[in-house]
């Protein structure tokens, strides 16, 4: 028979909630490791008193009772595993694994039995339900009634908070059954009472979470935080881990206590207790115990009289009482030489400590992430500036943590640390980037600077599908526009718009000859620069929709035929993941199967060439005729417009050479006989003459007489 048995996906019932993990049975005892918190429960083989196999909601379960009254429940077994477990218990633990099913009659009256830490409500010989008395926070009595109140369970959406038992009135041996019931519950309930004197007291310690200054009283079984507003009693059994972390300024120290379950303040839960100490603060401590008791209990880890730094004394006492190791930073050193990295998490600035087996962030909110629960990490460019980057961590449960605003100088140190710990890096890509990708064609402050930051070699933020993303298309568009960007032409564009408006109203003035000479040069430049752009647009617009489509490659033909099959084999797969999976399948495909799709692609290419020949003979000629007719029509319109402009220019030049007398006689025509060209030329001439200060000759006496008539 094997010396060990291992079971995965086993659930341990703790305070009404089911925690999944891994169960291992060996000659030495039973070990259960919680996959969520990493907490390990170890039951020695010599402590086991009874084992019960029963059917539960999650299949079959195993209940273990120890000699000191503790009860451990594990669910998730299969029915076929009973024989294997029964034989193992007989061979190594010398225990019979009894089969005892729960009663499902639905009766609400029965017998209450107290066994160790467990209250069992039975009907006959079968239990209906069991209550671990360690979950009871309060027990009150009434007339023929006992009320049990329970600790709130933070892991469960719905928690049982109260149970009431009706006790029939009986007088046996002069003992009140209600009081006897209550005393049995209180003797095993988890109701912390500060009895006796504290071992030692630390006064006015600065606490970051929960915030405030607290007196810490150290008792043999629990820790008492006494503040001005709140009091907390923390059993040592709820302490999961201890951390001692140096501050970045090298003048302060963090002492972090990880708690499970957390302490509560209203609706707020504190999973971490964080104390802040100054390295310069010293203390002399005397334990409230004699030397023999200190030596017997702590075995040399503590002495009756101690002195040193305050943080050293607190951490030393907690380590001895909790009996857990203190975790300190490992060999990591940042750019500044500190063992932490300054960053932000959820809009609050703090410090991220890379440890030997995980990461811890202090202090608001504190976060501890173990390496074995990390799925992958990701290095991302900062959203606001190129001087920083983001460090993202995603766990196997799908929770994502983003630590932002990390200085770019820390990238190399952090990347080497993550790489040395063999963590999966999501965006591990090219180590060298072509120089033209990071070239900055725009002046300072333009879009080119952002483009250079994205393709910066030291970030290596590339993924296989980045070049097919909309972001890359946008950046390519920016890069395309940068090529035609010429500094100094923006002012010319503004001037051109002004000059074109001015030429329509004041083109005949003699004093504007200098401006008229400059205008044609600018217009010629505009036509020269913009004509190719118009031709490109016309060529795109003039594409014939009736033209045959280009044939697809062998890979694309295969992908179109197998796309639905890939989707059905991988439900919920994204477009990018589908393309990646298809590429892998195509690469792994045999040469014979690929030749089949190559033949289909060759057939499609021949059909395309044949269709193109027919199109060039028939459809293309018709479409080309339509295009030629459109171009001819545009050319005629342009010629007509040019002739009209020449005619108006000739009429303006003739009007300027007429005699003053004729001009004066024409000025007296009625409005309906005056053309728009003459009126505009007359107005423009009047404006020019007024600007230049040239007076027109006075009319003759005959003209004045005829005018008066």
Break the fold down into its secondary structure elements and pairings.
Blueprint: E1 5-14, E2 17-25, E3 29-34, E4 40-44, E5 48-56, E6 59-66, E7 71-77, H1 82-93, E8 97-99, E9 111-115, E10 118-123, E11 126-132, E12 136-142, E13 145-150, E14 162-166, H2 177-188, E15 200-209, E16 212-218, E17 222-226, E18 231-235, E19 239-246, E20 252-265, E21 268-278, E22 282-286, H3 291-298, E23 305-309, H4 310-322, E24 326-327, E25 341-345, E26 348-354, E27 358-362, E28 367-370, E29 374-381, E30 388-395, E31 400-407, H5 411-420, H6 447-454, H7 470-483, H8 489-505, H9 513-541, H10 554-569, H11 575-588, H12 591-617, H13 619-657, H14 660-667, H15 676-692, H16 701-708
Parallel strand pairs: 5-8, 19-24
Antiparallel strand pairs: 1-2, 1-7, 2-3, 3-4, 5-6, 6-7, 9-10, 10-11, 12-13, 13-14, 15-16, 15-21, 16-17, 17-18, 19-20, 20-21, 22-23, 25-26, 26-27, 27-28, 29-30, 30-31
Helix pairs in contact: 8-9, 10-11, 10-12, 13-15
Low-confidence stretches: 430-531, 657-709
- What is the arithmetic mean of pLDDT? 75
CATH class of the domain at 200-327: Mainly Beta
**Overall number of strands:** 31
* Number of helices in the DSSP assignment: 16
CATH topology of the domain at 200-327, anyone?
Answer: PH-domain like
Major sheet description: 8 strands, mixed
Distance between the termini: 140 Å
Based on CA inertia axes, which overall geometry fits? Answer: extended
Class per helix and strand makeup:
alpha+beta
Lateral arrangement of strands in the main beta sheet: 4-3-2-1-7-6-5-8
Rounded to the nearest angstrom, the radius of gyration is 45 Å
- Content of β-strand: 25-35%
CATH A-level architecture of the domain at 200-327? Roll
Q: How helix-rich are the residues, as a percent range?
A: 25-40%
């Amino acid at each position: 028979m094997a010396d060990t048995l291992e079971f995965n996906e086993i659930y341990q019932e703790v305070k009404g909630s089911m925690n999944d993990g891994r169960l291992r049975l060996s000659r030495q005892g039973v070990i259960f490791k919680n996959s969520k918190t990493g907490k390990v429960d170890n039951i020695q083989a010599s402590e086991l008193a009874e084992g019960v196999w029963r059917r539960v909601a999650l299949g079959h379960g195993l209940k273990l009772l120890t000699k000191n009254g503790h009860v451990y429940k594990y669910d998730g077994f299969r029915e076929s595993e009973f024989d294997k477990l029964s034989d193992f218990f007989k061979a190594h633990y010398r225990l019979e694994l009894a089969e005892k099913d729960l009663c499902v009659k639905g009766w609400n009256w029965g017998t209450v039995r107290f066994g160790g830490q467990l209250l069992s409500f039975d009907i006959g010989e079968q239990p209906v339900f069991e209550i671990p008395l360690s979950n009871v926070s309060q027990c009150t009595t009434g007339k023929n009634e006992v009320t049990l109140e329970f600790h709130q369970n933070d892991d469960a959406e719905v928690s049982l908070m109260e149970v009431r038992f009706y006790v029939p009135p009986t007088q046996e041996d002069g003992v009140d059954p209600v009081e006897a019931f209550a005393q049995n519950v209180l003797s095993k309930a988890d109701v912390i009472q500060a009895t006796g004197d504290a071992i030692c007291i630390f006064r006015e310690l600065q606490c970051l979470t929960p915030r405030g200054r607290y007196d810490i009283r150290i008792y043999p079984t629990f820790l008492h935080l006494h503040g001005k507003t709140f009091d907390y009693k923390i059993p040592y059994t709820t302490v999961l881990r201890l951390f001692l972390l140096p501050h970045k300024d090298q003048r302060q120290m963090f002492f972090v206590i990880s708690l499970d379950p957390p302490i509560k303040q209203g609706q707020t839960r504190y999973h971490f207790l964080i104390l802040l100490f100054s390295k310069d603060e010293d203390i002399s401590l005397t334990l409230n115990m004699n030397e023999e008791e200190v030596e017997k209990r702590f075995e040399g880890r503590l002495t009756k009289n101690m002195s040193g730094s305050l943080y050293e004394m607190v951490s030393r006492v907690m380590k001895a009482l909790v009996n857990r190791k203190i975790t300190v930073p490992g060999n990591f050193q940042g750019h500044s030489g500190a063992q932490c990295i300054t960053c932000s998490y959820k809009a609050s600035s703090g410090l991220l400590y890379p440890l030997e087996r995980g990461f811890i962030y202090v202090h608001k909110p504190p976060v501890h992430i173990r390496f074995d629960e990390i799925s992958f990490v990701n290095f991302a460019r900062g959203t606001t500036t190129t001087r920083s980057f983001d460090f993202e961590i995603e766990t196997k449960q799908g929770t994502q943590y983003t630590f932002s605003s990390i200085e770019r100088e820390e990238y190399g140190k952090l990347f080497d640390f993550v790489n040395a710990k063999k963590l999966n890096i999501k965006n591990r890509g090219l180590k060298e980037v072509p120089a033209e990708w990071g070239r900055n064609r725009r002046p300072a402050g333009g879009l080119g600077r952002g483009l250079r930051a994205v393709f910066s070699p030291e970030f290596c933020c590339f993924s296989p599908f980045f070049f097919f993303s909309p972001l890359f298309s946008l950046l390519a568009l920016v890069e395309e526009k940068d090529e035609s960007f010429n500094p100094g032409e923006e002012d010319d564009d503004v001037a051109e718009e002004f000059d074109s408006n001015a030429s329509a109203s004041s083109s005949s003035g003699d004093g504007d000859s200098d401006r008229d000479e400059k205008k044609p040069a600018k217009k010629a430049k505009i036509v020269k620069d913009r004509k190719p752009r118009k031709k490109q647009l016309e060529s795109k617009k003039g594409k014939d929709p009736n033209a045959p489509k280009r044939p697809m490659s062998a890979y694309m033909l295969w992908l179109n035929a197998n796309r639905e099959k890939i989707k059905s084999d991988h439900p919920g797969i994204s477009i990018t993941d589908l393309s990646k999976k298809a590429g892998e399948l195509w690469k792994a495909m045999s040469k014979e199967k690929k030749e089949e799709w190559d033949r289909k692609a060759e057939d499609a290419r021949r059909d395309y060439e044949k269709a193109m020949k027919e199109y060039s003979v028939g459809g293309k000629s018709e479409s080309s005729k339509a295009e030629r007719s459109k171009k001819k029509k545009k050319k005629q319109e342009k010629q007509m417009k040019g002739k009209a402009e020449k005619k108006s220019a000739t009429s303006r030049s003739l009007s300027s050479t007429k005699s003053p007398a004729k001009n004066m006689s024409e000025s007296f025509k009625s409005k309906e006989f005056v053309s728009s060209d003459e009126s505009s030329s007359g107005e423009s001439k009047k404006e020019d003459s007024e600007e230049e200060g040239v007076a027109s000759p006075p009319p003759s006496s005959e003209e004045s007489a005829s005018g008066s008539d």
